[in-house]
Specification:
heterodimer, A: 116 residues, mainly beta, 7-stranded mixed beta sheet, 4-stranded antiparallel beta sheet, globular, B: 114 residues, 51% strand
Chain lengths: 116, 114
């Protein structure tokens, strides 16, 4: 199947700093990418839908100024957690939609963010 | 709104025995249903999907799922469980219309004991 790469896999930062997470589709073009957040022992919660060349669509309750999403190319979307606080510590997972009509999603390996 | 429910937080099964992980769905229109598996600190791996056609869908690693319209269920099954199948399993439904968003169930932890 298609490969989605996410970087970094783990990041630790101080409170108040900003952290950028990259999501790349390695062997296909992804016009749409999704960002999910997962708390320990919980399901994935969709944060936003990222479309190449346009503004991201955020889910209700997700602060768009807090979680900046950029999808500048067909193979790269970035999530920047601005002014991070300990409550932002979580596992962030991106996914990219394949080119098939059934819309199968391929997931990155996730990025664990720890804010001290 | 589309939704899926996974009624079991955890399923325990002995190696070699058949396993079932339950999922029920609620959708308007035709359901697009998926199963994913997650190993610790990893992303999700696609197992199988139901879009249309045969009610019994075969997927990766020997898993299969049966789509049952009358019971609105899409249970994941495997005839003979392996210890390495121990992981977190998510059922998901595609949000309707032209959206490709996936709505996930709460997840079921599968523990296969030797």
């Amino acid at each position: 199947g298609a490969v989605v790469s996410q970087h970094p896999s783990r990041v630790i930062c101080k409170s108040g700093t900003s952290v950028k997470i990259e999501c790349r589709s390695l062997d296909f073009q992804a016009t749409t990418m999704f960002w999910y957040r997962q708390f320990p022992k919980q399901s994935l919660m969709l944060m936003a839908t990222s479309n190449e060349g346009s503004k991201a669509t955020y889910e209700q309750g997700v602060e768009k100024d807090k979680f900046l999403i950029n999808h500048a190319s067909l193979t790269l979307s970035t999530l920047t957690v601005t002014s991070a606080h300990p409550e932002d510590s979580s596992f962030y997972i991106c996914s990219a939609r394949g080119t098939g009509g059934t819309g199968e999603l391929f997931f990155g390996e996730g990025s664990r963010l720890t804010v001290l | 709104a589309q939704s899926v429910a996974q009624p079991e937080d955890q399923v325990n099964v002995a190696e070699g025995n058949p396993l079932t992980v339950k999922c029920t769905y609620s959708v308007s229109g035709n359901p697009y249903l998926f199963w994913y598996v997650q190993y610790p600190n990893r992303g999700l791996q696609f197992l199988l999907k139901y879009i249309t056609g045969d009610n019994l869908v075969k997927g990766s690693y020997g898993f299969e799922a049966e789509f049952n319209k009358s019971q609105t269920s899409f249970h994941l099954k495997k005839p003979s469980a392996l210890v390495s199948d121990s992981a977190l399993y998510f059922c998901a439904v595609r949000d309707g219309g032209s959206s490709y968003k996936l709505i996930f169930g709460s997840g079921t932890r599968l523990l296969v004991r030797p």
